Amino acid sequence: MIFDFFSEIRNELSVVEEELIKAVRSSDPLLTETATHLIKAGGKRLRPAFCLLGGKFANFELNRIVPLAVALELIHMATLVHDDVVDASLTRRGQPTVKAQLGNRISTHIGDYLLGKSLILISLYDDPLIPRVLAETSVKMSEGEILQIATTYDLDQNIKDYFYRINRKTALLISASCQLGAVACGAPRQLHQTLRRFGHYIGMAFQITDDILDMTAEQTKLGKPVGGDLRQGIITLPAIYALRKGSVRNRLQEIISKTDKSDQEIHEAIDLIIGCGGIDYADAISDKYIAKAKKELAGLPDVPVKKTMQIIAEFIGIRSF
Amino acid sequence: MIFDFFSEIRNELSVVEEELIKAVRSSDPLLTETATHLIKAGGKRLRPAFCLLGGKFANFELNRIVPLAVALELIHMATLVHDDVVDASLTRRGQPTVKAQLGNRISTHIGDYLLGKSLILISLYDDPLIPRVLAETSVKMSEGEILQIATTYDLDQNIKDYFYRINRKTALLISASCQLGAVACGAPRQLHQTLRRFGHYIGMAFQITDDILDMTAEQTKLGKPVGGDLRQGIITLPAIYALRKGSVRNRLQEIISKTDKSDQEIHEAIDLIIGCGGIDYADAISDKYIAKAKKELAGLPDVPVKKTMQIIAEFIGIRSF
């Protein structure tokens, strides 16, 4: 069964898609081709969708909101492309990994190019709140990335560190998308602040669920090997919880600390985490964020897309991919 | 003999220096430390200086111009940090180069962080021209970087390709610095457009001279081995000229095409380029740009810093480091 969460904004999303293609055009045909390829490779377009939905709570105007929706996706894409940059030390047995072969330098500059294109779109807006929120967001997103690198293999990090990190990594841009879509359509302060908080809670739940799925999803749905975070020493909420449990702590530490883990060790670590309740714990935290998101929704005007927002909030915590 | 080109704006430049340090502060102490270290490592602060000088042609106001001057240096620093990102293939004899050891991922995200901080400062300005010019500039700078990678080892590129590339790589941001300093201080359109053109010509001459010095400077002054561009397959103006000369073309092609060149081969290539007039040719082109810059200066009001601008124009073409 397929349910289209964005059926109410399907037409608007296809306009965003067309404008995304137009936005990355360059005078250099090769660059246009590479950037277009990146866009056509797909993505959930979650940020443009939240932006459009946010706008539907205010005086929705397609022409006003589309450049912003496109800019948000470009910022998101730029961070994905920059995440592809790897260290020389990540070469395996002397051979660069597939990602490294694509070219760190190209990834860096294409990410900058996409970011630059987003700045052009953002500079079209007169309301200074839009560039200001996005500038603050982009600084914090970089801080989050650097923090994630710095806390890799840090087995002593606590839950607060984790929340701080996933807010920067994911929630802030989703939050900005919900808020600024409304700002672009002339929403009063109280409305766009409520949407900002809604987006924050949804974004937190989204990333926690992502981190759970990294351990529990079927590999075919995930599209990558299970346990990728543990493999790279990225300690997420279920692992932080489990590492506090005396019964599993020592063995878990031992496995996670290894820089080269076997598939069997990864599965053992996941079983230890599940066994001591790490996944249930993370699920419960995600549910709390969803409850908070729904509470914010209650304060929003009864426009048709409000129902869509409610369904999205429900789905984020129960999705299996 | 030391001549301080920026003596007239020395106080203003120290304010910029203080604000640069403040601008990169993060809630993460390690990030603050790394970014502060990058700033304290120095740099000519050419872009802030041009920005301040541009402002002196209008209603100079320190508070109005400093955030922009800081933002311009942060953009420049971000591009330098991103230029440090290397490909896995650049490991030498299986060992990553020094740059690669510093961490491609950290370089990418620190560059993004500096860029984000510049966006915060830029978002303070009400005049939409400032974010718009800088957004266009940053897109074109990324295009220039990608083009430089794409044209590496391309022995058939022509002079037009080279100008296109160095405009994006260097001239555009210097041009924007001259123009926007004046814009931030309320300059009328004609004035900031003249400064924009002046900056373009100066920027082009600056990069051509840089490319000449890469072949002719003493290694101690250059701070890196002579012939670095040729070594990496970056074809600059003197080489493009020489590659058209039948007498040296074949041998020059042979050397430049090699991915692993000996010091002796680099020196032979440089001697071939000098011998057939490649350096003189590039010098003459640089002089033409300087003449154009001076012509633009003539149209500017007679403020005290005009003399400084003239001296800078003279110096750019004759500097030896």
UniProtKB/TrEMBL annotation, chains A, B:
<dbReference type="GO" id="GO:0046872">
    <property type="term" value="F:metal ion binding"/>
</dbReference>
<keyword id="KW-0460">Magnesium</keyword>
<dbReference type="GO" id="GO:0000010">
    <property type="term" value="F:heptaprenyl diphosphate synthase activity"/>
</dbReference>
<keyword id="KW-0808">Transferase</keyword>
<protein>
    <submittedName>
        <fullName>Heptaprenyl diphosphate synthase component 2</fullName>
        <ecNumber>2.5.1.30</ecNumber>
    </submittedName>
</protein>
<dbReference type="InterPro" id="IPR008949">
    <property type="entry name" value="Isoprenoid_synthase_dom_sf"/>
</dbReference>
<dbReference type="GO" id="GO:0008299">
    <property type="term" value="P:isoprenoid biosynthetic process"/>
</dbReference>
<dbReference type="InterPro" id="IPR000092">
    <property type="entry name" value="Polyprenyl_synt"/>
</dbReference>
<dbReference type="Pfam" id="PF00348">
    <property type="entry name" value="polyprenyl_synt"/>
</dbReference>
<dbReference type="InterPro" id="IPR033749">
    <property type="entry name" value="Polyprenyl_synt_CS"/>
</dbReference>
<keyword id="KW-0479">Metal-binding</keyword>
<comment type="similarity">
    <text>Belongs to the FPP/GGPP synthase family.</text>
</comment>
